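FAQ: What does a ligand-bound record look like?

Like this one, built around uridine-5'-diphosphate:
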Amino acid sequence: MRFLVSGAAGFIGSHFCGRLVADGHEVVGVDNFITGNRGNLEHLEGNPFFRLEEHDVTTPFTGRGPFDGVIHMASIASPRFYFAHPVETLESGSTGTRNMLEVARRDKARFLLTSTSECYGDPEVHPQVETYWGNVNPVGPRSCYDESKRYAEAMTMAYHRVHGARTAIARIFNTYGPRMALDDGRVVPAFVDQALRGRKLTIFGDGSQTRSFCYVRDLVEGLVLLLFSEERYPVNLGNPEEMTILQFAERIRGAVDPTLEFEYLPLPQDDPRRRRPDIGKAKRLLGWEPRVSLDDGIRETIAYFRGLR
Ligand code: UDP
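The answer part, i.e. the structure of the complex:
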């Protein structure tokens, strides 16, 4: 089959393209490289089943099809970068989603939107189920990301309802692994880089806020299963193993150098207090659940960041 993937040069996009090509599919990847990195796709260079095009999803995609599937991953997903580029973040979720949906409509292709657990904002329901509507600050610093994804979900459902588009929505929870950008400010690359440099690990707030970390290989497996399913409504994909940021810092420290110290910095505004996916729907519908342990995932991630040095 033939797929169009936006955000192909991103962290998850590059793994996802690699997986589709490994499964025998043909992929056209597009990226405007605002946060994506060509180096992430080195492993597919010269592969006749993969082509990378520089393209900004906020302009219509007129490239030749037809495609059997369109996957809209293009997004500025790390808080540091979306704080720096709020307008572009809103645009890739709004205009970008519409443009990619148009390709799916043109080609009668399956469409997959990679949405986010941020749709739940700072959740009052725990763990988060897909039927929870969320608790999002519409004007706070994270709103450019959260609301663009909520709009993207609404637009995706509208194309399904109005045009009968075969759409799918994945709500992705914190994901980590090789090819995360070293400077993107997210907790995994931040802690690993600090640990490898022998610096203090920067804990925002008192570190009691929680996250649940999914290894990228597991996430990609879930995305592929969802892509080939018939589901229309959002499906959570993430690892339900929840921990505090302080516990996570201890795991990274333990894996690199147990003598490292912590430095406590102010908690960013609207930083969600807790986050953990309820993956009951993905289990029932797709037979999917994460398999990679945090220890194994951390080991592979640290090896990748060591290799960059
Ligand atoms: N965080 C931290 N130190 C860092 C970077 C992040 O304590 O150097 C915290 C951040 O405040 C949040 C959690 O780690 O509570 C996850 O942050 P990240 O930016 O990775 O993603 P988020 O889940 O907030 O989108």
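Follow-up question: can I read anything off the structure? Yes, for example: The pocket of uridine-5'-diphosphate is lined by residues 79, 174, 186-187, 190, 202-204, 209, 211, 245, 268, 271 (CB under 6 Å).
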